[in-house]
């Protein structure tokens, strides 16, 4: 099994019938690059920049951030690296910001919402990212976007940061792909509209499940309801992928679901373009994808979508997975 996976490492990420997909990794620090290199992932589908902000007593400076982002890009030459802007607040607290406690932090001032209220923090990060952009294939992604206004507002701040740097004669790329996390049901429902303006989507199933099924992702008592195979979640996922393709854009997934081999056939059938997961899952998922034929996966996905419960869908996918292992 080990040997098989080692052999898979050097082979292209594509289905049995040759449809190319990307199998990328999720990381949060430059120190994790080695793990990504070890499994020869196609890139970073999610760099959680909040880790650069954590474990310290004050905000990282523009220079500190620039160095961290540059180090990641230089460690993965020619590979796509998607940097998600600060996703703090909610369950990811930064004590030094001194934010007042909220009754419902998951529904509160987190991610881009926090960045819009602290534009100093956001601007500094965007400058650091743009400065790093000249060192590799940098993509920028905004978390917790609920609709078009928020995307436009974030993008306009990015443009301001770029104009500022250009005026100051500081090197940065004039064009960087900009996408959003789809992790709020409103964004999934509006995917056709959002797809007109974003460069790509990445589905965050961890939060998408939390908000779709109304289960606090940190609450053990209702954890049994937290399931990305819930048919409502699957409908949203399939809708997002289809909407992006209709607009000539691509969709990735960086939530836990992307690294679950039980989901691989289904997501391939939906047409997912990029799977991003913890490095440990990359080779197994890649091995599976290389055995799947697109038309077969589409047929299985269609069957799965006729089922009404997560349990039935899981049982069905378990059966299908046997065929490929
Ligand atoms: C997600 O919500 O699925 C996601 C990838 O982001 P995080 O787990 O960091 O909230
Ligand atoms: Mg999230």
UniProtKB/TrEMBL annotation:
The keyword Coiled coil applies. One of its GO terms (biological process) is phosphoenolpyruvate-dependent sugar phosphotransferase system. It comes from the Bacteria. Keywords: Coiled coil, Cytoplasm, Kinase, Magnesium, Metal-binding, Phosphotransferase system, Pyruvate, Sugar transport, Transferase, Transport. GO terms for cellular component: cytoplasm. The keyword Kinase applies. One of its GO terms (molecular function) is phosphoenolpyruvate-protein phosphotransferase activity. Its cofactor is Mg(2+). Mg(2+) binds at residues 183, 207. It is found in: Cytoplasm. It catalyses: L-histidyl-[protein] + phosphoenolpyruvate = N(pros)-phospho-L-histidyl-[protein] + pyruvate. The active site is at residue 254. Residues 5-293 form the PEP-utilising enzyme C-terminal domain. General (non sugar-specific) component of the phosphoenolpyruvate-dependent sugar phosphotransferase system (sugar PTS). This major carbohydrate active-transport system catalyzes the phosphorylation of incoming sugar substrates concomitantly with their translocation across the cell membrane. Enzyme I transfers the phosphoryl group from phosphoenolpyruvate (PEP) to the phosphoryl carrier protein (HPr). This is Phosphoenolpyruvate-protein phosphotransferase. The lineage of its organism: Bacteria, Bacillati, Bacillota, Negativicutes, Veillonellales. The chain holds residues 252 to 576 of 580 of the full protein.
């Amino acid at each position: 099994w080990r040997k098989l996976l080692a052999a898979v490492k050097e082979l292209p990420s594509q289905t049995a019938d040759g449809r190319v997909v990307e199998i990328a990794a999720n990381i949060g620090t430059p120190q994790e690059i080695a793990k990504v290199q070890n499994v020869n992932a196609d890139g970073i589908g999610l760099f959680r920049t909040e880790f650069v902000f954590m474990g310290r007593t004050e905000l990282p400076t523009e220079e500190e951030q620039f160095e961290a982002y540059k180090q990641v890009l230089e460690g993965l030459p020619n590979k796509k690296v998607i940097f998600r802007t600060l996703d703090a607040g909610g369950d990811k607290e930064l004590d030094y910001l001194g934010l007042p406690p909220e009754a419902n932090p998951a529904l509160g001032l987190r991610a881009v919402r926090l960045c819009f209220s602290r534009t100093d923090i956001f601007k500094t990060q965007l400058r650091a990212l743009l400065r790093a952009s000249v060192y590799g294939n940098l993509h920028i992604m905004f978390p917790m976007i609920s609709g078009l206004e928020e995307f436009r507002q974030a993008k306009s701040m990015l443009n301001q940061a770029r104009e500022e740097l250009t005026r100051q004669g500081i090197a940065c790329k004039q064009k960087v792909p900009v996408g959003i996390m789809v992790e709020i049901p409103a964004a999934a429902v509006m995917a056709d509209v959002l797809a007109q303006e974003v460069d790509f989507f990445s589905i965050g199933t961890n939060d998408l499940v939390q908000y779709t099924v109304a289960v606090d992702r940190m609450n053990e008592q209702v954890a049994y309801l937290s399931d990305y195979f819930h048919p409502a979640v699957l409908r949203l996922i399939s809708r997002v992928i289809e909407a992006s393709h209709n607009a000539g854009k691509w969709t990735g997934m960086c939530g836990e679901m992307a690294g679950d081999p039980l989901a691989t056939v289904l997501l391939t059938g939906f047409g997912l373009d990029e799977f991003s997961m913890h490095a440990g899952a990359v080779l197994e998922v890649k091995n599976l994808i290389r055995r799947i034929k697109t038309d077969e996966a589409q047929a299985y996905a269609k069957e799965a979508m006729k089922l009404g419960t997560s349990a039935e869908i899981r049982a069905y996918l378990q059966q299908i997975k046997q065929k490929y292992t």
